[in-house]
Amino acid sequence: MKKAIVLAAGEGKRMKSNTPKVLHHVLGISMLGNVIRELKKSEIDKIIVIVGHGKDEVIKELEAYGEEVIYREQPIGEGAPYGTGFAVMAAIDDISKDDEVLVVCGDTPLLKGETLKSFMEFNNVNGFSASVMTADVNDNFGYGRIVKNSLGYVERIVEEKDANDLEKNITEINSGVYTFMGKYLIDNLKKLDTDNSQGELYLTDVVRILNSQGENVGGFLIEDELEILGVNSRVQLAQCDKILRKRINTRHLEEGVSIIDPENTIIEADVIIGKDTVIYPGARITGNTKIGENCIIEGDTFIVDSVIEKNTCIKSSYIEESSVGNGVMMGPFAHIRPNSIIKDFAHIGNFVELKNTIFGEHSKAGHLAYLGDSEVGNDVNIGCGVITVNYDGINKHKTKIEDYAFVGSNANLVAPVNIRKNAYVAAGSTITKDVEEEDLAIERCEQKSIAGWVRRKNRVK
Asked: Is residue 184 assigned to a domain?
């Protein structure tokens, strides 16, 4: 069985945060979540997450990832030896001698599933007892150095604080990603000691021990060193976010999406966008959003967990957990709140807000309207300033406006109420009763003009 151990017990002091380090987000997903998602892509059968600091929050995060993801607690506090070797020991009872065991850190959100899969295949094809993922870097400070023997196998890994001057010049470094055949990991974890500058149990020492036993340890040199970047500060978190954003935006560009300014466009990993769609600077497209072909997304548009069909234009608008049909014109500054459905060729103009509303084909709400808990038919006109008064202070009520109805400007529709087919509501009316088919409803005081009032009050200028 293929198993992965994810080290996620660290405190992350340099983050200066009350949130556990691995739960900080990179492009909308926690670092730990990114690692787990990529592990699943690499065909891992079981994932064991080692928790410690902030364990309750981390455990809660794991609930979203299925039964194949479990956790084990690493003892922390006074008397605990710490170190990567000590962390892996927390999962020892979940490993059998026939398993392939991948060890990764929970703060490396740029690792790719395909890379992890290739890494494990490399270990198997070459018959190694273990392998280390390595990278050749210009700036090697702080990394463990890879020392190889005459055959090119990894002989040992020397940590920065334990390295001599010659070893510090080595540019091939340890990524912190390992794969072991279960037998060799189980047998040798118990042989680790704290005889080092940190007084910790280093997992890297297993490499030295395997060499002393005559076993070969492979070195898998990664092609893209950016994949192994770990996060220890908010500066590094921002760097990873930028790299992942570029990776995702490049994929969409290669698939036929135009992104005018990729550096100022945020598209999260699970978003799907059809070809010939154009995304302008400032757009944020997140969650499980799906956008069809030939759309235009302009300005400060925020879309989360929504479906946008083909040939739709959205300008500087917010759309949350809703569906927008084909050929819709929206914005600027519209707000579509959850559970709304906007059907084909509708027009939602500036400062129009919908909440839990169905808005029919070819219907129009040009500006400054609120439609909540409503059902609007086809070819309906909603005038400027129209409000569906859906809340009585205790309960929400529904407004239904049928096909071809016309609601004049500044009308209040006090729910529950029905505006029937081809009915008209006069501007300025407050409607509290159903308006029947083909009727005109007017509810306002008769206008009065008082002759000469302005002059008598000495207000003529």
From this structure: yes
Distance between CA atoms of residues 272 and 280, nearest Å: 16
Domain around 195: 2-228
* Mean pLDDT, all residues of the chain: 95
Find where tokens 């739960």 sit. 23
Task: Give which of 251, 334, 269, 270 is closest to 297, Cα–Cα.
Answer: 334
Give residue-wise pLDDT tens across range 28-52: 999 999 999 999 999 999 999 999 9
Residues 271 and 204 in one domain: no
What pTM was computed for the model? 0.91
* 234 belongs to a structural domain: no
For the residues 317-323, what does the mean pLDDT come to?
98
Q: What is the pLDDT of residues 353-392, one digit of tens each?
A: 999 999 999 999 999 999 999 999 999 999 999 999 999 9
Residue 256 · residue 276 · CB < 8 Å:
yes
**Domain shared by 265 and 389, yes or no:** yes
Q: Classify 58 as helix, strand or coil.
A: helix
Looking at the fold, whether 78 and 221 belong to one and the same domain comes out as yes
319 and 185 in a single domain? The answer is no
Strand residues in 331-402 grouped as ranges (E): 335-336, 341-342, 347-355, 358-359, 364-372, 374-376, 381-382, 387-389, 399-401
Q: Which of 228, 246, 267 is the last residue of a domain?
A: 228
Give the confidence band of 254 by pLDDT, cuts at 50, 70, 90: very high
Does the pLDDT at position 302 exceed 90? yes
Q: Are residues 285 and 196 in the same domain?
A: no
Clarify whether residues 189 and 285 are in a common domain: no
240 falls within a domain: no
DSSP states along 342-358: E-TT-EEEEEEEEES-E
Q: Which two three-digit tokens encode residue 162?
A: 């334990």
User: Which tokens hold the place of 327?
Assistant: 């050929």
CATH of the domain at 39: 3.90.550.10
Catalytic residue check, 53? no
208 and 263 assigned to the same domain: no
How many domains, the chain?
2
- 177-188 in b/e form (b: 16+ CB < 10 A) is bbbbbbebbbeb
Cβ neighbours of 48 (radius 10 Å):
22
Question: Is residue 383 within 8 Å of 409, Cβ to Cβ?
Answer: yes
Q: What is the pLDDT of residue 270?
A: 97
Cis before 416? omega within 30: yes
- Select which of 24, 252, 347, 367 is catalytic: 367
**Residues 157 and 103 placed together within one structural domain of the fold:** yes
pLDDT digits 0-9 by tens, 135-192: 999 999 989 999 999 999 999 999 888 899 999 999 999 999 999 999 999 999 999 9
